Amino acid sequence: AQSVAQPEDQVNVAEGNPLTVKCTYSVSGNPYLFWYVQYPNRGLQFLLKYITGDNLVKGSYGFEAEFNKSQTSFHLKKPSALVSDSALYFCAVSSRDSTLTFGKGTMLLVSP
Amino acid sequence: EAGVVQSPRYKIIEKKQPVAFWCNPISGHNTLYWYRQNLGQGPELLIRYENEEAVDDSQLPKDRFSAERLKGVDSTLKIQPAELGDSAVYLCASSLGSGMNTEAFFGQGTRLTVV
Fold first, then answer.
1. Mean pLDDT, residues B45-50 taken together
2. What's the whole-number average pLDDT of chain B?
């Protein structure tokens, strides 16, 4: 069975500072990894995905994620955080049939 | 292009009552998903459709939950009767195809409160 772990319930960062939201995964075979963001009272929005190739994946709103096969990690990063980045972030892994298995989410709070 | 549309946005019902949720996927998306998101958790799959066929309903509590996707477009998810533990956000998503690298697009969800 596949699984995703997001070890931090909440990440706090000051605006302008770099941010990292951690994610580790467990899956048999090649991993297909995703990050989604959820703003209050809105659905999940796709940020980026890793399929194959370059370990550094660039996505929407200036976010990027680094795939590390040896550490089974797929951490979300952004060089300079914005207050508007404050939201709930979900890491997910895709199964053979495209069904997503999500982590429990990490709340990102960016202070002015 | 319109995204995934769900209705209603919010629903409050008494336990033992029936409830239904509706989803209209993105045009042309043949794969449709229903997920349930409990408070403080990530979404969990209830059922997945390929066109009008339910290809994965292993996590759907079939004693009280049912779903249909007539004509392979819109879908409804029904609970009858509802229990207090069914309070959650029900998310519909759709994707173009069902490959492992296919990203799903989500609707805003229906927040169900059972009292």
1. 94
2. 93
pLDDT for res A28:
85
Question: For residue B46, is it left (φ>0), alpha (ψ between -120 and 50) or beta?
Answer: alpha
The ranges of chain A with pLDDT < 50 are none
Fill in the amino acid letter for A4: V
pLDDT tens digit sequence for B8-25 = 999 999 999 999 999 999
Q: CA neighbours within 13 Å on the CB side: how many for B34?
A: 31
Q: Which of residues 63-102 of A touch B (CB under 8 A)?
A: 90, 92, 94-100, 102
Give the largest CA-CA distance in chain A.
Answer: 42
Q: Which two tokens stand for residue B83?
A: 């229990």
Say if the Cβ atoms of B101 and A51 lie within 8 Å: yes
Rounded Cα distance between A7 and A4, Å, is 10
- The span from the CA of A104 to the CA of A4, in Å, is 8
**What is the least distance, in Å, from the CA of B99 to any CA of chain A?**
5
Token reading at B47: 């059922």
Burial of A37 (0-12, 13-18, 19+ CB in 10 A): buried
Residue A80: DSSP 8-state: S
